[in-house]
Amino acid sequence: MTEQVWSSPIGDLRINESDDGEMFAQGQHVASGKPVFFSIKLPARGRREEVDFEFIRMRIAGVEAYTDMVRDFLVSELGLDPEGEGKAPLIADPEFTFWGGLDWSILFAEGSLDICEPYGVLVNFHDTHIVGFDDLSGAEEV
């Protein structure tokens, strides 16, 4: 695997190319006063000019609103008590992945939900709409 650094409109990104040729750009962007980790799957042959940085910036800037939206979605999907959050948040530590086009995901790496152990819960979006979630509690470490 090779690694390089790329100065982008949303900050310096580390470009990683895996043995199978997939390329991801990774970095952090400050949103709501906190750094948020993100990863961008680059188009074929790493054509960086095809990356929609404004789309990415807007999603990361909306981290608080998307977290609230996901919390409400998971409460509904899992049949939870909407008032039962308690001291520990249901979901926390969001990490964004942008897959290309309008598809993206947020991994909430921590949370009080059982499905957050050990790897968090991955919520998938198309544009601004939640399309589902992946329960990673049974996943194996890669």
Care to describe what's here?
The chain contains 2 helices and 8 strands. The model has no long low-confidence stretch (mean pLDDT 87). The chain has helices at residues 53-61, 63-78; strands at 2-8, 11-17, 23-31, 34-41, 92-100, 103-110, 121-126, 129-135. The protein has 142 residues and is of the alpha+beta class. An 8-stranded mixed beta sheet has the order 1-2-3-4-5-6-7-8, with helices on one face. A hairpin with a 2-residue loop joins strand 7 and strand 8. 18% of the residues lie in helices and 43% in strands.
Task: Please outline the helices and strands.
Blueprint lengths: L1 E7 L2 E7 L5 E9 L2 E8 L11 H9 L1 H16 L13 E9 L2 E8 L10 E6 L2 E7 L7
Parallel strand pairs: 4-5
Antiparallel strand pairs: 1-2, 2-3, 3-4, 5-6, 6-7, 7-8
Largest sheet: 8 strands, mixed
The helix content is 10-25%
Total number of helices:
2
Q: H/E element string?
A: EEEEHHEEEE
**Termini separation:** 16 Å
Strand content: 35-45%
- In which order are the strands of the major sheet placed? 1-2-3-4-5-6-7-8
Q: What structural class should be given to the helix and strand makeup? A: alpha+beta
Calculate Rg over CA atoms: 16 Å
